[in-house]
Amino acid sequence: MANSFAYPTIKERLPVILAKIADTLYRTRDKIKSQYQEDVSEELKSIIGSCSKLRNEVQTNKVAVPLQDSRNDTQVWNRYLQAATEREGSPPSWFKSAWLYMECYMYRRIQESVEKCNIMKEFDVFGEQKEKSFTDSVYPTEIVMMHLLETQQKIKENAELVPEAFKLFLKVCLWGNKCDLSISGGEDNAQKSSPLEQLGKLEPNILINDSNVVLNHLCSRNCKRIDIVLDNAGFELISDLCFAEFLLSAGLCSTIYLHAKAFPWFVSDVTKKDFDWTLQMLGQINHIAVSNFAQVWKERLNNSSWILQVDDFWTLPYDYSQMETYAPDLYQSLQKSDMIFFKGDLNYRKLLGDLRWPFTTSFETCLRGFYPAPLCVLRTSKSDVLVGLPEGRDEEVKAQDEDWLVNGNWGVINACLKTK
């Protein structure tokens, strides 16, 4: 682990995230208390104490312990821990066990501290950070939505503009993934400049660009359903929703399934609460395009041209090659999709099993049998797992940028059309 990005993540980034939770909750305790009719002082103290204790466990390489709350996934997590213990000969620990599992386990332990509450059971320890990320991104939100509104009008008049517009919104969707609070340790990482102006500068940083493959696939068949497995709240969610709106208005599909997390996850991942809050906030912005789409998107949810779904599998420790076994209903639902877009670094890691594949290994090979439907991953690289590169490309990029694998400045639009 010491020669990978896993080591600095466990050693530095995770303790910072836990410390920030405790600090934020203590600093805003009066504001939090005012949101409840009953006294939540003891529950707030308990959450802060649990996060501080967990931080100490991480820093001192303690072993993972079973969860003790009553959430419906608790036994699944505990069975996974038991199996890992039997497989490794001792309980998993922070610096010696699989990074993907331990990082996911940390966020589930954070949620455990909330699940044990009576009054604060629905509380989001990352809520304030996510809300700030949204409010700091209002300017680029207005720009992208205005461009979307203008694009809709143009493609009504000239359908030949659809391919170029598709690629633009796909790239906005890709680079929206730079805004990830779990990578910045919860520090401000909002999109503040015009994302459209940045697209040209970032074009050389797209290491794999299968946008033509995806577009040809969508145009060559009468697509009904497209799925988007969401990643971060804030500007990334806005970019995802704009892409979803474009797909519908361009006639590339008739229904969009949006997949959110079941509870607060990896600091900034989208929950249903975040999704609803975002639409509510958009409705309060005095801007012609923003207020228009806030209304349109509420209507899309009402008429089911957008369907928001939440499944516990997205917040379990399994990688996606195990979905058919552990979440057969979700897998069978995804099989009905004409294209699944997976957003972000964690989805990418789970697609590839978080294994250290050679950079030149094909994406299709690394999916290890996970072929529910044609899929495409939109991911800026924030961990040292990356595949599908031509021979020598990794060395070229490393010569330009030493931290290219982990700083979020390099991206992939990587598709696999194979299905079972």
TrEMBL record:
Biological function: Metal-dependent phosphatase that shows phosphatase activity against several substrates, including fructose-1-phosphate and fructose-6-phosphate. Its preference for fructose-1-phosphate, a strong glycating agent that causes DNA damage rather than a canonical yeast metabolite, suggests a damage-control function in hexose phosphate metabolism. Has also been shown to have O-methyltransferase activity that methylates glutamate residues of target proteins to form gamma-glutamyl methyl ester residues. Possibly methylates PCNA, suggesting it is involved in the DNA damage response.
Species of provenance: Mytilus galloprovincialis (Mediterranean mussel)
Keyword terms: Hydrolase, Manganese, Metal-binding, Methyltransferase, Nickel, Transferase
Lineage: Eukaryota, Metazoa, Spiralia, Lophotrochozoa, Mollusca
EC id: 2.1.1.-, 3.1.3.-
PANTHER family with a match to the protein in the record: DAMAGE-CONTROL PHOSPHATASE ARMT1
Cofactor(s) this protein requires: Mn(2+); Ni(2+)
Domain of life: Eukaryota
One Gene Ontology CC term in the entry: nucleus
Record-annotated Damage-control phosphatase ARMT1-like metal-binding domain positions: 9-396
InterPro entries assigned: ARMT-1-like_metal-bd_sf (IPR036075), ARMT1 (IPR039763), ARMT1-like_metal-bd (IPR002791)
Catalytic activity: beta-D-fructose 6-phosphate = dihydroxyacetone + D-glyceraldehyde 3-phosphate; L-glutamyl-[protein] + S-adenosyl-L-methionine = [protein]-L-glutamate 5-O-methyl ester + S-adenosyl-L-homocysteine; beta-D-fructose 1-phosphate + H2O = D-fructose + phosphate
Example GO molecular function: protein carboxyl O-methyltransferase activity
Similarity field: Belongs to the damage-control phosphatase family. Sugar phosphate phosphatase III subfamily.
GO terms (BP aspect): DNA damage response; intracellular phosphate ion homeostasis; methylation
UniProt domain comment: Subfamily III proteins have a conserved RTxK motif about 40-50 residues from the C-terminus; the threonine may be replaced by serine or cysteine.
Record SUPFAM superfamilies: AF1104-like
Protein name according to UniProt: Sugar phosphate phosphatase
Coiled-coil blocks: none
